[in-house]
Recover the amino acids of this structure.
């Protein structure tokens, strides 16, 4: 196992200070290594995640070569030749487990934002004190965006949140963590070859969730109550002016509708599986409040906005992979983790083999399937 940094590198170096997992402790499990502490319903801090993965690496005796950056991989001699910072390596099979979130995604018009406005991505944002005083425009209303908008607003900043397509979720439903429902009902185990529109499923934004000791919901209504101003999707910059899409009403209605449908499937599952008595009665949530007027543009030269925080997603970085397996959009070509090159496999990508594939607990089932395939390939 080659790791350019240390074990749990992404959790050590690429996250902001206040982040906690959005998956509860009982769910954030690794193979044979579940949570046995005093707070199964809590959410780990980054320090605790690093400890978990460190401990797992030790007990599983993972043969990690830390501080080994893979600079290039090419096909050679019926396998792969790697150039690493610790010398060359040849292997017959290769598992690409380099992560789905190596680089923050930022739209091209970021380059047209006036120089007087500071720009941050989740990789260089640490806490509100590192952001210049004054108004902040947070772009993107998925897990990262809603969390950073709330944190900056609570620190007293005027915050505007630019909202595009998003996945609304309550923290708890009928008395249980909403992720309990996804896990228990089997929704998360849905296989990639059973998903209707796989390309879309793989591009779905993360749910609007935060892990806090209070188990609070962080949807757009909660942000509005905190005083965050909502605007539409940021579409362009023209002469220093940010232009936002209209139609927030439709964007909110769609997210509300999808939430209703999801809760409906949970209710149906509980009824059919005879689990109704274990949980509270069905609940429904208020629709997302549409602001009386949402500005369609903001002059970035006016001084009202001093910083932009791009919470517009993440992507993998395959710049080191010199094998033609990456498509024009930068995505690895694979079928359920079996990459389009003999003996090459992938793990940890969205809906790789199951809906849960990019979550910590999702690795186990995918790894088992792929190890079977890999062993067959090697003829062992
Ligand atoms: C902000 C954020 C919050 C998240 N919250 C949760 C959560 O609450 N619960 C949850 O289950 N999941 C969460 N996830 C998803 C999480 O990333 C995955 O669950 C998990 O980290 C995936 O592990 P991984 O090993 O596949 O990828 P990573 O953790 O990204 O690990 C990949 C490793 O590969 C190394 N690497 C990359 N390229 C090279 C190279 N060329 N040479 C050598 N080494 C290399 C990196 O240094 C890194 O350590 C979150 C993700 C993000 C971005």
């Amino acid at each position: 196992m080659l790791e350019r940094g240390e074990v749990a590198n992404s959790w050590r170096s690429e996250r902001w200070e206040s982040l906690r997992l959005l998956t509860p402790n009982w769910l954030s499990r690794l193979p044979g290594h579940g949570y046995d502490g005093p707070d199964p319903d809590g959410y780990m801090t980054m320090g605790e995640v690093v400890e978990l993965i460190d401990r797992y690496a030790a007990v599983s005796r993972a043969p990690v070569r830390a501080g080994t950056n893979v600079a290039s991989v090419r096909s050679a001699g019926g396998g792969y030749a790697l150039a690493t910072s610790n010398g060359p390596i040849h292997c017959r099979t290769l598992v690409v487990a380099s992560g789905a979130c190596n680089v923050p995604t930022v739209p091209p018009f970021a380059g047209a934002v006036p120089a007087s406005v500071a720009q941050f991505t989740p990789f260089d944002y640490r806490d509100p004190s590192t952001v210049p005083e004054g108004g902040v425009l947070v772009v993107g209303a998925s897990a990262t965006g809603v969390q950073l908008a709330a944190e900056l607003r609570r620190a007293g900043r005027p915050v505007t949140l630019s909202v595009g397509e998003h996945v609304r979720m309550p923290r708890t439903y009928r008395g249980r963590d909403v992720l309990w429902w996804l896990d228990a009902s089997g929704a998360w185990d849905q296989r990639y070859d059973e998903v209707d529109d796989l390309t879309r499923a793989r591009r779905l934004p993360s749910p609007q969730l935060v892990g806090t000791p209070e188990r609070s919901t962080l949807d757009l209504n909660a942000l509005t109550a905190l005083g965050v101003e909502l605007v539409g999707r940021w579409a362009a910059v023209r002469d220093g002016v940010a232009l936002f899409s209209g139609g927030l009403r439709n964007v909110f209605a769609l997210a509300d509708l999808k939430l209703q449908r999801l809760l409906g499937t949970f209710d149906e599952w509980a009824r059919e599986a005879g689990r109704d008595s274990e949980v509270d009665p069905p609940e429904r949530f208020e629709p997302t409040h549409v602001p009386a007027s949402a500005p369609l543009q903001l002059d970035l030269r006016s001084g009202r906005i001093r910083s932009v925080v791009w919470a517009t997603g993440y992507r993998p970085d395959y710049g080191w992979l010199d094998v033609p397996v990456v498509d024009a959009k930068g995505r690895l070509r694979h079928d359920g983790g079996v990459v389009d090159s003999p003996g090459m496999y992938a793990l940890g990508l969205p809906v790789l083999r199951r809906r849960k594939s990019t979550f910590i607990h999702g690795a186990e089932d995918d790894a088992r399937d792929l190890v079977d395939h890999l062993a067959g390939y090697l003829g062992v």
The chain has a mean pLDDT of 97. The first strand starts at residue 70 and ends at 76. The helical segments are 9-13, 46-59, 143-154, 178-184, 198-203, 220-226, 248-272, 363-378. The pocket of flavin-adenine dinucleotide is lined by residues 2-5, 9-10, 15, 21-23, 28, 69-70, 97-99, 101-102, 144, 314, 320, 348, 358-360 (CB under 6 Å).
